[in-house]
Design a protein that fits this description.
alpha/beta, about 550 residues
Amino acid sequence: MSKLVESPAWHALKFHHAAIETIHMRQMFQGDPMRFDKFSLKLGNLLFDYSKNRINDQTVKLLIDLAEQARVPVWIERMFNGEKINSTEQRAALHTALRNRSDRPVLLDGKDVMPDVRRVLGLMRSFSDAVRNGKYLGHTGMPITDIVNIGIGGSDLGPLMVCEALKPHASQNLRAHFVSNIDGTHLTETLKKLDAATTLFIVSSKTFTTQETLTNASSARAWLVEKLDAKTDDEQAVAKHFAAISTNLAATSKFGINPHNVFEFWDWVGGRYSLWSAIGLPIALYVGMDIFEELLDGGYAMDEHFRSAPLDMNIPVLMGLLGIWYGNFFGAGANAVFPYDQYLYRFPAYLQQLEMESNGKRVDRDGNPVDYDTGMSVWGEPGTNGQHAFYQLIHQGTRMIPADFLAPLHSHNPLGEHHAILLANCYAQTEALMLGKTIEEARAELEAQGLHGEALEALLPHKVFPGNKPTNTLIFDKLDPHTLGMLIALYEHKVFVQSVVWNINPFDQWGVELGKQLAGNILPELRDVTFTSRHDASTNGLVDYYQKHR
């Protein structure tokens, strides 16, 4: 057995779980009228209510003991101080430096990284201002009206999510588009709507070698040259209509991108943590650099809280520990995220990569197989859409699915009673998941509807809700850039806390590589007309089937 599973803190939680498992949250609320005050925290305009969890004072104490046993405060400082905690790649994980709004230096190998961070922010401001105010012109002398970000993974999910979330702040003169999928449909359908003369492509690839991104970029380049009838001066056309976020200047130059339109970021910035860097250039273009820096301010505010708040008053720490409580002791395999704000409709998709790519690991930092579950499946949709789809499984299904509910007090688009109805549904769902409906309550309800005898008894079991389903509720005033920055950083740090307790490295993603490697072997076989026998029988059959029907 692993040291974690054999540890005193783990054993104490296991013993405590056996004692608390049968206690319903109804009883907890009835027995403690101060439960909301006790189990909620406020940071700025963000309220974190975790009172509807299957916990009591002892649970929180034991979870904090687990965090202290794992030396979470030490690891927090190690991350902020630039230590190379990404052990398999021998890199720091310094995404927090990208949003450091203080005068404090951030040292990496003895060198302060902040001058470079501020320099790139300045370049982003100059470029985005020029595009937004119409001074930056395309090859034919026309201003830019459409931005197409070409990336994948963190180079797509983060900027896309933020641009959608901050749409109320967007320029009226610019439209943002995102192409990630290697499926030609994604690029083709995007380009159908665009005028090449007023389109700017941003190619986001640190190494400028990512197959999907470079394939899409090359096709976009060919489209641009053809549409502008610029085959004789394609270099000038490409130089005016392409920018890149990359560290490979030789490759971007070979592609034809003007070096002044190439923005740097560093190997201590992981892809799924990169929206704070030059990868966020589409955000700066779409909503303006002032708004982008407000986003950084929000991330920094959460960083300061995470770094300084006591563990039992620390929102990311508590969220991370609650996830461990349900995943490792209750056997939950999924965590749902339900934003009751349409602008956050891509937030669950963003969190899927953040959590599942970070903590989907089978070995610990020392390379030993773990004997405990790590990570959860993350999914969700905006409310109230999800209520009419998959909430049934959470309410009456057999699996526990802890859920986070996020909602603003005020809407960017007040319209009649729309927002009051939205919030009523959000609050009601967390209450229903906690309370459930007993058989006695269901019987009384059916009798009040005039149902009796066999008809009542037949319907009665279907009307019972077990309740006792855990939720966190995050309430904020309005979805502004600062609040969004806080929310993103909150979930980043939640994931980090869990990785520390599980003793895994959340900053690598070797699992992404195997399929890409094998795809490299199969692609030449799909191009060739000869049949193959080098794979397993299924893969051989699929390749041969394609050859017969191509």
